[in-house]
């Protein structure tokens, strides 16, 4: 069904986008404060006032993940609000219910983490009670999306495929992330590590599906060309993304017992996914620019910047997946550098482009519709340069640590 004419964003879309942006700002604040711990004097001052690195880092990673999930869901709600009659009363009731669940879970995570509670699990360090509340909200969100499948699925544009699979796949990764609560898993350290690392990989896969779908949907709306969402390239990205979501953890876990074939499959599939994503971004940016509309070009600049980070992270992924090099840098800040480059340079830039487009759809977003693209072109290089300095610094520090560890020397400071 064709989209209904835009009459400004519905309150639900604005609220979801606002929640996502709050998570982004909070993640940035926690990350900036956590970075101060690399200065000994600042670290001592913060530790004395209850702002330890062990508390700030989990908050940073948790709310950064919530930003990516939340921004993708905001785009999903824009589609829900403009197709098949828009949001019904029951849809709005479920939206308010799942928003309340997520806000309460976020507050609970903040309070308990600052109080010193931690499960010691990557991305899921908070108390299982907040996990249950978040999962309950996710069920309500999934209900709003999946009930639309009664209008058909197989002939839908690829972004609906991305959103549907990403939404369902979240249940898999969330369950795996809590497998340590089972006595049989917790009693076996190797099995526990295998499942934990797999859950981290599938978590990234689930929010990547939401991001990819949002990218193609917004690109279609900016370019005015619906054909790309039914193209072979888009479906290739979807197919490789599905396979990668089940295997991408393996080439980061060479230190764990695994069949070599699994590691090679994971490596090759991950490289293919990044290469196809780069192709998708290039095609969408060209399509938007070809329209020669200032309204479109302003917001396409975010996507244009993300493609270069995809190329850089593709090269980095290849490097850190070489077994000998991986053994040297595993567990160091090189891995953090790669994570920062992908979540900021790719996911965040793409979703900021989507968020800017959503804001431009509001009546208050007239300034975005009539903006001068030169403003973005002046601001974006500073963002890229700042991120490049961060990634390079982490990579150098991690490499020095890895070399010292290999030599049996103390970690350099």
Write structural notes for this entry:
There is one protein chain. The protein has helices spanning about 10-35, 40-45, 55-80, 90-115, 130-145, 160-175, 185, 190-225, 230-245, 260-290, 295-320, 325-330, 335-360, 365-370, 375-405. It has about 425 residues and is mainly alpha-helical. The longest helix has about 35 residues, at about 190-225. The relative contact order is 0.08. Residues about 1-5, about 290-295 and about 365-370 have low confidence and may be disordered.
SSE order in H/E notation?
HHHHHHHHHHHHHHH
Distance between the termini: 60 Å
- What is the count of DSSP helices, taking H or I runs of 4+ residues? 15
| Beta-strand content | under 5%
Spatial shape: globular
Largest sheet: none
Mean pLDDT: 83
Beta strands, count: 0
Which helices and strands occur, and which strands form pairs?
Layout: H1 11-35, H2 40-47, H3 53-82, H4 89-114, H5 128-146, H6 158-177, H7 183-186, H8 189-223, H9 232-247, H10 260-290, H11 294-320, H12 323-329, H13 333-360, H14 366-369, H15 373-407
């Amino acid at each position: 069904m064709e989209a209904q004419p835009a009459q400004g964003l519905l309150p639900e879309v604005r609220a979801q986008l606002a929640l996502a942006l709050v998570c982004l700002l909070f993640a940035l604040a926690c990350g900036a404060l956590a970075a101060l711990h690399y200065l000994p004097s600042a670290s001592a001052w913060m530790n004395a006032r209850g702002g330890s690195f062990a508390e700030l880092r989990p908050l940073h990673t948790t709310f950064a993940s919530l930003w990516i999930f939340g921004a993708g869901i905001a785009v999903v709600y824009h589609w829900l609000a403009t197709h098949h009659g828009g949001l019904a009363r029951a849809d709005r009731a479920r939206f308010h219910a799942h928003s309340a669940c997520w806000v309460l879970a976020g507050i609970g995570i903040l309070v308990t983490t600052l109080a010193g509670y931690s499960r010691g699990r990557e991305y899921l360090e908070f108390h299982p009670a907040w996990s249950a509340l978040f999962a309950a909200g996710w069920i309500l969100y999934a209900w709003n999306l999946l009930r639309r499948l009664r209008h058909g699925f197989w002939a839908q544009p690829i972004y609906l495929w991305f959103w549907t699979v990403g939404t369902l796949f979240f249940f898999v990764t969330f369950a795996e992330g809590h497998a340590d609560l089972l006595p049989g898993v917790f009693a076996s350290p190797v099995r526990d590590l295998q499942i934990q690392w797999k859950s981290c990989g599938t978590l990234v896969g689930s929010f990547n599906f939401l991001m990819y779908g949002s990218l193609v949907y917004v690109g279609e709306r900016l370019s005015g060309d619906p054909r790309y969402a039914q193209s072979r390239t888009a479906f290739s990205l979807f197919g490789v993304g599905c396979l990668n979501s089940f295997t991408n953890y393996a080439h980061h876990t060479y230190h764990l017992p695994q069949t070599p074939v699994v590691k090679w499959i994971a490596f090759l599939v991950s490289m293919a996914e990044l290469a196809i994503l780069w192709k998708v971004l290039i095609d969408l940016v060209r399509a938007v620019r070809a329209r020669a509309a200032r309204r479109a070009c302003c917001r396409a600049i975010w996507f244009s910047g993300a493609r270069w980070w995809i190329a850089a992270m593709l090269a980095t992924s290849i490097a850190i997946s070489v077994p000998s090099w991986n053994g040297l840098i595993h567990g160091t800040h090189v891995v953090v550098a790669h994570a920062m480059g992908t979540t900021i340079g790719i996911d965040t830039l793409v979703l900021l482009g989507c968020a800017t487009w959503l804001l431009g759809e509001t009546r208050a977003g007239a300034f975005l519709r009539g903006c001068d693209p030169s403003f973005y072109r002046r601001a974006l290089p500073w963002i890229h340069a700042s991120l490049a300095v961060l990634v390079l610094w982490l990579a150098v520090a991690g490499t020095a640590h890895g070399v010292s560890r290999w030599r049996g020397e103390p970690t350099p400071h």
